[in-house]
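Re: [help] complex structure
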Amino acid sequence: MKESPGVVDLLGVLAYAELSAYARMTEDAATLAPSLADRAALSELAITEYAHFRLLRDRLTELGADPDGAMAPFVSALDAWHGQTRPADWLQALVKTYVGDGIALDFYREAARHLDPSIVKLVDEVLVDEERSKFAVEQVRAGIEAQPTAAGKLALWARRLVGEALSQGQQVASVRPDLALLLMESLGEGQTDISRLFAKLTEAHNKRMAAMGL
Amino acid sequence: MKESPGVVDLLGVLAYAELSAYARMTEDAATLAPSLADRAALSELAITEYAHFRLLRDRLTELGADPDGAMAPFVSALDAWHGQTRPADWLQALVKTYVGDGIALDFYREAARHLDPSIVKLVDEVLVDEERSKFAVEQVRAGIEAQPTAAGKLALWARRLVGEALSQGQQVASVRPDLALLLMESLGEGQTDISRLFAKLTEAHNKRMAAMGL
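Output below.
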């Protein structure tokens, strides 16, 4: 394969994203779930994230990289993202899981697009979110049905999540040029492609919002 | 089998103990681990606790009990235990995992001793703690070697954990007489056996302290 210097960065940021998503979802489950059954359901999804972390860590080791070293540059940005987007209730936690992570994952997938097929396969595997999406969508729809006034506040919350994600993403890109380069390479050259990327991300985001009834 | 009314209580308290241990260990790993590798190691142990929770929940369902209902009476006591014993650093977290949970598990194992063999087997399975013990013991011993003055404080911390565990245990026993009865039945009658139980628990506790070099 054409070894891209951004690959270790990409797997590193993804690994820490999964490890921190696991911890955050576990905490949200323990503190915000309205029932023990819901708590268990979100915990199951958290553990899936941990399994993804494991895959990424092992692949980093296979590539001869030190997983801790690969994750380290991204710890503060991702911790800051979680610190600035602490959900206040159960529905906010689910919207965060679905929308916030969703937009981040779209970026990662895009960055991986032109890498070695085995990396693309791994990234696709860890970015699968069917179960998580299904659970979040069902719960949020039911929540809005029970309390229609919640929809407006949740829509605002989703907008804030996207804003914070973009702001952290820019910071990461500025300190890790190799990672930014991956994304640029996958885009090809020229303004048109950047516009196309943003159109694609926005479309995916709007689909998620619509799925939740927001 | 001779259906004991305490069985659902026992599996319920164990299930919630595992579910809350999972959440607490995950949080301790995320906030107190000195490295990402240590964080992953403690997270792995947390996920094992969750797997135990799953086994207990499924058994409750098989017995025709509602898992949430079976766990509910124990939520506040176990949450109080965790709230009152928040570790301040990594070594305190590991001592808590090993010593605090250890003494609680000794009680559960004792309570299960005369139940149906399939229940005894399940309880033994979820109470296995080899991996957790090994990790905690190694880390605490290394920590004390690096900083010998830490030993005295950790010994005090362990004593506090045991005190809090006994106090929460008494509260649970007073509101769940069926569970207390299980323990009494397993003891047989008379003061001698209670003394023997306490001698046994103390011995196991002292062994754990010695293993850590405390």
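Chain B has one domain: 6-212.
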